Structure formats: C-alpha cells, structure tokens
Amino acid sequence: MESFKPSHILVFGATGNIGKHIVNQLISAWPPFPQISIFTSANTVSTKPDLLNKWKAAGVSVIVADVKDSTDVKNAYQGVDTAISCLGRGALQHQFELIKQADESESVRWFFPSEYGTDPEHNPGSAHEKPHTFKRAVRKVFAEEVKNLKPTYLVVGPYIEMWVPKDLVSGFDLQKREATIIGDGEQLIGFTAMDDVGKGVVAALQRPEISVGKALKIASFTKSSNQVLAEFEKQLGEKFNVTYISLDEVKSVEEKFWDEGNPLAVVAALRRIWVTGGAVYDRLDNEALGLREDQLQSLEEAVRDRLDEKPF
After folding, report:
1. Does residue 141 contact residue 99 with C-beta atoms inside 8 Å?
2. What is residue 5's three-state secondary structure?
3. What's the distance, Cα to Cα, between the start and end of the chain in Å?
C-alpha cells in the first residue's frame, strides 16, 4: 500500500461524540478527499437533520442503513477503499462484522477501528484492563483472521473535553470552583482535544506510508492534573477547593462499580489508568504525521474553551 491514496472514505458512528469531529476534519482537509460517505441510522436522520444537512451541503454522501445488518454493510462498502469506525463503547461489538465485511469486500483495504483512547499494548498490565477487552479482540482479529485489510490504530489518551467535568471519581466542578484529583496530581497525562483527534485521522490518511498497519500515538499536550488545575485558577483568577484522593480509594470505587455492573466502572478504570502512566508515551507520532504544535490545541486554549461553554 505504499502508493495507496484514499479515494472514498466511509465513516461509521459519524454523528457520535468523536465522529462529528472526525467528519468535520475530513471535510475541511486539504487537499480534499475525493469522496466522503457516512453510514447512519434512520433514527439519526430524524433526530439530527441539521447536522446531516450541513454535511450533505459540504458534499458528504449519507447512507441510511442498519449497522447490525450485514447485507446493509456489504452494500455500503461498494466502491469504498477506506473505512473509519467511530462507534461508541456501547456499539463496539458491531466492529467485528464491519471488519469481516470490509476484509471480504472487493474494494476496502484500510480500516481505522474505534481505538481513540488508551493503548491496550502500552505495557504488560494494559492487556488485562477490562476497558481494553474489545480493543484487544479487534487487534487479535487483524493479527489472526484478516487477509486483505490493513488497520491503523490511533491512540489519543483522554479527550480533554471529557476529562475535565467532575464525575463520581474525579474532575472539576467549575461552577463551585472545586476539584477532585487522584494521587498527588503530578503524573503527566497526554491529552487530546476532540478536534485534534480528527486532525490526527486526516494526517494518518494523508500519510499511508507511515500509518498503515501501525498504532499511532498523538497528543495535543502533555500536562499533569495539577498543571490543568493551575491553568483554570489562573484564567478564573480564583483558587479552587481541592480534594486529593488516593489511588487505593479509586481502586476500591472501581471494584465496587464492576461488582454492581455500574457503567461508571469503565470511567473509574480509565481515570486510574491515566494517573498511573497509561496515557503518556516515550515518543509521540505528532511530528511524523506532520502535526505541528501550532495546529493543535494548547492547555491554555483548552481551558479557555471549557470556560467559554457557559458563564461562571
């Protein structure tokens, strides 16, 4: 695939949290991609007409079908050479059929699984993390079953937009000027803004000689929880009431959530992974992909965006 250039890209999960950002960046890419299509449901057509109409006006083709129907998927792949999955955690089980159908198609040769987040091969312990179950299974399929299809895995760490808000484990309550931080807050974390995930996908698509068959790691910026806190306090001109909780406390909450079948168990696990080095790497692929620092969001910009979402 050394001389391969994507000519028709199909996106699954395009209107979801990360899918919207990826599609917007595909649309604004230069040089432009010849053809962009999205695969979406009838329900999405009825609930998100403004977004779909905006994309149609930009030249995006909208395929209305059922991701659970293998015939629909097979038909959607006709003429497509590159597929991008942006499916959310609740729909990841459908990726296996998407990959199977893509591998069997006459045209699809490149597939981006929905890997945006932590790396299941980051260290020996990563392979045993429950949030990595589907990621490990997808990589196993590509390693052992796929014959014609090449993957690219994009690892981006936590989205800064979704890391900041306070949940039952940690985060920032901007209204109350409160923060809950795990450990001593000094562990570095590689954060990626959601728009920058889209830029990373575009950069990978534009450089198949670097990207095909690889697990690429990118980040908008690498900072500690305390550095993020300091930037909020600086821009607001106020100190936060900060609570530091131990890693053992987080592990206890996580274990309780898993036992209860609480979906927040995944959140607790990821929060723990991030503050134990699971989202910082010896080397990033930003430079190899041509992602310059001035193209990506800085911590200062990320905090300003969070504060601009509503008055405080």
Report:
1. yes
2. coil
3. 51
| Distance between CA atoms of residues 56 and 38, nearest Å | 10
Give me the residues paired with residue 64 across strands. Answer: 40
Distance CA 98, CA 68 (A): 9
Residue 20 annotated as catalytic: no
Tell me the C-alpha distance between 193 and 240, whole Å: 23
Strand partners, 216: 154
| Edge-to-edge strand list for the sheet holding 178-182 | 171-173, 178-182, 241-245
Q: What is the set of domains in the chain, with CATH numbers?
A: 8-157+193-219+280-289 (3.40.50.720), 160-189+222-279 (3.90.25.10)
Per-position pLDDT tens, the chain of length 312: 667 999 999 999 999 999 999 999 999 999 999 999 999 999 999 999 999 999 999 999 999 999 999 999 999 999 999 999 999 888 889 999 999 999 999 999 999 999 899 999 999 899 899 999 999 999 999 999 999 999 999 999 999 999 999 999 999 999 999 999 999 999 999 999 999 999 999 999 999 999 999 999 999 999 999 999 999 999 999 999 999 999 999 999 999 999 999 999 999 999 999 999 999 998 999 999 999 999 999 999 999 999 998 655
pTM of the model: 0.96
Q: One of 20, 56, 74, 135 is an active-site residue; which one?
A: 135
- Cα distances (angstroms) measured from residue 248 to each of 61, 245, 252, 291: 49, 8, 6, 37
Residue environment code for 114-137, b if the CB has 16+ CB neighbours within 10 A, otherwise e: bbbbbbbebeeebeebebbebbee
- Tokens representing residue 159 in the block: 């989205």
